[in-house]
Task: structure prediction
Amino acid sequence: MTVPVLSVRDLTVEFVTRRGTLRALDKISFDIARGEVLGVVGESGAGKSVTGSAIIGLIDPPGRIAGGEVVLSGERVDNRPPEAMRRIRGKRIGMIFQDPLTSLNPLYRVGEQLIETIRTHTSLNAAEARKRAIALLDEVGIPAPDRRIDGYPHEFSGGMRQRVVIALALCAEPEFIIADEPTTALDVSVQAQIIALIKRLCSERGTSVMLVTHDMGVIAETADRVAVMYAGRIAEIGPVRDVVKDPLHPYAKGLMGAIPSIEGDADRLVQIPGSMPRLSAIPRGCAFNPRCAQAFARCHVERPELTRVGDRQVACHLYDQPKAEIAA
Amino acid sequence: MSQLPPPDAAFVQVRDLKRVFDVSKPWLNRVLEHAPKQYLKAVDGVSFDIRKGETFALVGESGSGKSTVARMVVGLLPPSGGTVSIAGISMNDVAVAQERQRMRRRIQMIFQDPYASLNPRWRVGRIIAEPIRAFDIIEGEGDITARIGELLTLVGLHPDDAKKFPHEFSGGQRQRIAIARALASNAEFIVCDEPTSALDVSVQAQILNLMRDLQQKFGLTYLFISHNLAVVRHMATRIGVMYLGRLVEVSEGKQLFSAPRHPYTRMLLDAVPDLAMVGKAREGVKGEIPNPINPPSGCTFHPRCPLAFDRCKVENPAVIDGVACHAVNGDRAAAA
Result:
């Protein structure tokens, strides 16, 4: 296999607090191939956004990367000094955040922000950069880009602003984009447009995307593979079709059943009892065991590791054989 | 329960409801800049009925006026025009003020944000007891405490939780407290404004299931406001779709999804990301909701509508047989 665009190995993020060290990410590993969209889902506090921040080196103290490595196209990046990391961000890793209003500076024209980013990361001169900015705005579907480029962010609607943010992320032709809840602040009809746009841009440019969202519907339509996160770990990762249609991990099963569908005819939604544990009180053994209907003795003591099942990997004792049995 | 009206009778009647907000600049600016007054028609002639024991849902995108309708129905906002009557009692008529006051306890509301709708300085017991005390439903502290415990158990919490403060609970648990408070006055009609949109999916499922169980147990009537079509499909008996302050389609729950008629409803359904859509292509969605201060003439949906023709630009379509659209009703109108 070719070198993946992004390879994360045993990434661990900890927050040091007065009440002890909290582990927000616990040894997570995954790869993203060229042109692939990896969806990352989970409920609040599962560690989805921290994963994104850790990859781009934007974990603020008291948080820190406590272990593991992030490899971008074969090159390790997590141990770079801040200055070098700053050049990688924007140039090689693009970012799209949830709220387009906070990712744009309200005091600068949209064009100035695009041109600044283009000139920081490429050797184009001002006139060429402006031409390129207009081309980018056109590509993300902003009508009359040659006039709109001189508008301020407040003159754009929410959907149009998010298009500008996507154009900003594409400025330096990054090989990898992190989209953190890119459609959560938008209405459904606009959301559909933005999803279609991200999908089209990825297939045209071969850019890889890590799409972080809590909306399974968005993942089902956009992603090639999906990682379901729970309490700072990956519970299940695999092709989106398999995971959505036939999830293996009990948490993934519960999550899919809990989502009301406009096609399905379920009278009652599947209910997972309880809620996600706090980071300060992650249960011993499998973090999901207190909420799991299928938990058995081993789940209370031993933490399951990701095990390969067909095309995917699942961290659940139901699917791995105890070592003793294998030996026998 | 013998004096209840027959199940077909409308429990809540909303007729030609309107609400206009004044969004003009301050007086001095208007004088200096010769700017006219500006008005925003948040709700523009909405009529619907809710039958006893059903869930009527209003869906629409932001700015479509669904929350404004909800606030007018419960009386938090006076309408600029039109009427709301609940169980035959008008909510705006001064003549029936006395009966209306008695009516109030039968209506409750659940809000979107369970962090903002519970007083952080009150203990949960006091929060839930507030309607009981306000309406003098139960006398005596011992009985009130017993009732609070009963309500907490009903929504899946523990009677001891009454002694805690709201910050000690998660979002889903807080929404359970809000539901317990709504039930405290033996309400029959509950207006739910986006009750689960601040919650995670697994918690949302718990709350939706709880709301359905309570509906079956007590015969509650819900007005359910949401932007999430999948949630609405799961909950609603009948659904009204709103666009720019107008009701464009009213339909039986499942039918809206199997046979949507208004072009906006079709577009909205096409746009919903769904688990069943893995790997399927979908039709593109065009445009965005226009600015409600200057809505398009005629049918407000015409600039985005694939079926629009000349008449749509000048004439506002009336709701005929549950749909407000010239193209859909064209044949019927011609036949009449």
